[in-house]
Design a protein that fits this description.
CATH topology of the largest domain: Rossmann fold
Strand content: 15-25%
Structural class: alpha/beta
Mean pLDDT: 87
CATH architecture of the largest domain: 3-Layer(aba) Sandwich
Strand order of the largest sheet: 5-4-6-7-8
Number of domains: 3
Distance between the termini: 29 Å
Number of strands: 8
Shape: globular
Number of helices: 9
Largest sheet: 5 strands, parallel
Order of helices and strands: EEEHHHHHEHEHEHEEH
Oligomer: single chain
CATH class of the largest domain: Alpha Beta
């Protein structure tokens, strides 16, 4: 496994390409520096040895932190966003897969979700709310987007033989919430990171959640809320979960709680709000929180 490691020296971030190697004697992993890449902001894909250059993790890291070719990347993202909207509206899954392949080959799967699919779907929802997009087209876009995520997952799983399981995550929406594209996207990212996911969305009554948790205890629960009408239902759901599992990490995300005023009431022990962050940071928060609680 290779990845880029950041190291701050006198306030400046530098990048190192490192390899994780398993030490069979000590039964632990150690880092081995493959190449020093220089200042983080100036790193390009061409600086990485060719055998690691197309690794999705490497591409994603460079895209996120390097300032080189930002205008070129922004131009490509803008063009593909327009294409994505047209293909979603037309229900053209085959063309959408081609767009995904093109973008993901350069920047990775997570960047595709963050920079293309999520913004386009937010725009579609906004247009529908303002009456600029009819409900039939909105439904076609959502259904096709769900089909795209499913296709991405199926193709990835077909390529993966074995990988280490990092934990089990239960994903759901509150009762009445029918929007679950965000659940499919976060499930896709979690699966790619080695988690086992139980996606019980959409619209799950609180009693059904509790019954599911009686059969197994996940390492965390993710609740997605799109409509503010379901905030009170979510509060009730959290209270019921807490009566059975007081220390289980609960993560809340979705458009309904992206506004700061919607989050303060959820600031309770072992409840975390994921608001206006990229998927990579959301996954890091989930992983670090689970590890911290497991040590208690």
């Amino acid at each position: 496994m290779v990845y880029i490691r950041r190291k701050k020296v006198k306030g400046i971030d530098y990048a190192y390409l490192v390899k994780s190697i398993w030490d069979h004697t000590n039964r632990t992993s150690r880092q081995e520096t493959v190449k020093y890449l220089g200042k983080l902001s100036r790193v390009t894909q061409e600086m990485v040895p060719i055998e690691y250059r197309n690794d999705p993790a490497i591409i994603s890291f460079i895209t996120r932190y390097s300032t080189v070719n930002v205008k070129k990347n922004d131009s490509l993202t803008k063009k593909l966003s327009l294409d994505l909207f047209k293909m979603l509206s037309a229900g053209d899954l085959q063309s959408l897969v081609k767009i995904y392949d093109k973008y993901a080959s350069l920047f990775g799967m997570i960047q595709f979700y963050d920079n293309l699919l999520k913004p386009v779907m937010y725009n579609i929802g906004h247009q529908w709310a303002e009456g600029k997009l009819d409900v039939a087209t909105e439904h076609v876009c959502v259904n096709t987007a769900n089909a795209l995520v499913k296709t991405i997952d199926e193709r990835r799983l077909n390529r993966v033989t074995t990988h280490q399981k990092r934990g089990t995550i239960f994903v759901c929406t509150p009762n009445g919430e029918q929007h679950n594209l965000a659940c499919h996207i976060i499930e896709s990212v979690l699966l790619s990171k080695g988690y086992k996911v139980y996606n019980a969305s959409p619209s799950l009554p609180a009693d059904s959640v509790i019954n599911s948790l009686k059969n197994f205890t996940p390492d965390a629960i993710l609740i997605s809320i799109t409509l503010t009408d379901h905030l009170q239902t979510t509060r009730n759901l959290i209270r019921k979960i807490r009566t059975h599992l007081p220390y289980l990490p609960i993560f809340l995300g979705g458009i309904a709680i992206n506004h700061p005023n919607k989050t303060s009431e959820y600031n309770t022990a072992y409840t975390y709000v994921i608001r206006n962050v990229v998927l990579a940071d959301a996954i890091k928060l989930i992983r670090s929180t689970i590890l911290q609680i497991q040590k208690i």
